[in-house]
Amino acid sequence: MADSRPALPPLREVIARHGLNASKALGQNFLLDEQLLDRIAAIPGPLDGQPAFEVGPGPGGLTRAILRAGAKLVAVERDGRCLPALAELQEAFPGQLRVISGDAMQVDAHAEAGTGAHIIANLPYNVGTPLLVGWLSADWSPLPWWATLTLMFQMEVAERIVAKPGTDHYGRLAVLSQWRSDARIAMKVHRSAFTPPPKVMSAVVHITPKSAPEGVILKHLERLTAAAFGQRRKMLRQSLKRLPGALDALATLAIDPQRRAETVTVEEFVEIARILSA
Ligand code: SAM
């Protein structure tokens, strides 16, 4: 871990001094407990000298923790009110932080943060899932451009990411998150840890990429899971009947067409998608 731990003003003071009243529209629920923030920044593993990318630094709580861990960080913030507070962090950690003023949905994170970057964020709830889907859908040959994802979500989204077959939360997001990554809940975070507290609990999900299974085209896996989970209570023979080749693939793999999507494992979806991709 890097040695430099400059004395920084308390986050509450930063928020008050810069008038950062939380905006609901921007999904602003700030974390102010520096010990908690250091624990989140430790989840990806050693960051000293590593490239990192943060969405929505806000007043800079998680940003400080990532910088204390020694990362070279690019952070994208949509709320211009936060920029003066982030400029103070740039001064406190010379050469370590670059801030982009803009919408993370429009920013090319790979081009900005570089290959091998750790993506770490307390995500705004309204763009969290689309950003995750974008990162999980990256080119993967044999690994994606990013090294790890460490992301705070509302608990319900976190549960959908790590869900196992046979559970209510299991669906398209679980398959997309797990077919070529390990995804786990690294930390549950009580709503009272945020200012202002959101209505629901949150969790930090940690995602580590693996080599993608060979011969599977993402587009085919997506079409398959869209069809299967589009009618999740129906038997596969019904939900997949309009997807060319899918019922034959079930027969080839001896997967019972009377099963429902929520019982099909990630590995089975991958096997079906491999046949559809051929
Ligand atoms: N990182 C801070 C923390 O942990 O205390 C703030 C997290 S807060 C949940 C989400 C942050 O994302 C806010 O600062 C908000 O302004 C910012 N934000 C919202 N939508 C954004 C977008 N589309 N692109 C970039 N930042 C966004």
From TrEMBL:
Reaction(s) catalysed (UniProt annotation): adenosine(1518)/adenosine(1519) in 16S rRNA + 4 S-adenosyl-L-methionine = N(6)-dimethyladenosine(1518)/N(6)-dimethyladenosine(1519) in 16S rRNA + 4 S-adenosyl-L-homocysteine + 4 H(+)
Keywords: Cytoplasm, Methyltransferase, RNA-binding, rRNA processing, S-adenosyl-L-methionine, Transferase
Pfam families named in the record: RrnaAD
EC identifiers of the protein: 2.1.1.182
SMART domains: rADc
UniProt main location, coarse: cytoplasm
GO molecular function: 16S rRNA (adenine(1518)-N(6)/adenine(1519)-N(6))-dimethyltransferase activity; RNA binding
Any Gene Ontology CC annotation: cytosol
Top-level taxon of the source organism: Bacteria
Family recorded in the similarity comment: Belongs to the class I-like SAM-binding methyltransferase superfamily. rRNA adenine N(6)-methyltransferase family. RsmA subfamily.
Name used for this protein in its record: Ribosomal RNA small subunit methyltransferase A
Organism: Sphingobium amiense
Lineage: Bacteria, Pseudomonadati, Pseudomonadota, Alphaproteobacteria, Sphingomonadales
